[in-house]
Write a sequence for this structure.
């Protein structure tokens, strides 16, 4: 049976912290010396973001590459993405990213990549996108619900301890029934799913955690989940 893996970072990794432990955890989830592709669509394929990716992953036992859609070249997207062992999606504007993916057919390719055993991962927008729903600042103003690709059931909220507006907005939208119950993750915490089930939660710092957020007797309730602290 092919192991289907998704690792969703609430925050952290190469784009947010000096510690390499979350990124190393992602590498270790794949094969030896994996091919890892950064997809920075949500940031408009920011050149500085791509540079930070190479700076981190060029120092590890992997083969880093990246895919740009704003400056798309003539390569076959399906063949290229399906040749990767890890696809790492960056943060930014979730709604724009998903719309652009749809135009280029990347959403369908990612579904096939998951089925064949490619590790899918990402931070913020790159975490929300794997779930049925999430909350996003993509539209300006207050955080709003948005649809994801639906590879994972329920909803997700990243940056739970890093942005003050996240927790109340997540509670509000769950209470109103706009999004389903789900999992919130702090900056520095990552949710590791295997075959659609939450397998492990890891963190790069002691204070980083994750919790289940759901309706119980008409009230929004948070239940803390066990977290493994990664060592450098």
């Amino acid at each position: 049976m092919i192991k289907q893996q998704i690792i969703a970072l609430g925050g952290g990794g190469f784009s947010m912290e000096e510690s390499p432990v979350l990124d190393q955890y992602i590498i270790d989830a794949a094969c030896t010396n994996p091919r890892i592709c950064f997809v920075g669509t949500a940031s408009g394929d920011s050149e500085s973001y791509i540079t930070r990716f190479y700076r981190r992953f060029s120092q590890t036992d992997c083969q880093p590459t990246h895919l740009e859609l704003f400056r798309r070249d003539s390569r076959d997207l399906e063949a290229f993405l399906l040749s990767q062992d890890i696809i790492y999606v960056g943060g930014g504007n979730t709604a724009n990213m998903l719309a652009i993916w749809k135009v280029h057919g990347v959403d369908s390719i990612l579904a096939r990549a998951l089925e064949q055993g490619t590790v899918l991962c990402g931070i913020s927008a790159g975490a929300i996108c794997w779930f049925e729903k999430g909350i996003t600042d993509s539209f300006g103003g207050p955080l709003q619900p948005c649809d994801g690709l639906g590879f994972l059931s329920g909803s997700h909220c990243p940056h739970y301890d890093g942005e003050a507006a996240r927790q109340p907005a997540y509670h509000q939208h769950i209470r109103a029934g706009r999004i389903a119950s789900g999992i919130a993750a702090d900056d520095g915490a990552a949710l590791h799913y295997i075959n659609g089930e939450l397998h492990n939660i890891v963190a790069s710092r002691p204070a980083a955690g994750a919790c289940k957020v759901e309706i119980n007797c008409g009230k929004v309730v948070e239940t803390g989940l066990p977290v493994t602290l990664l060592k450098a």
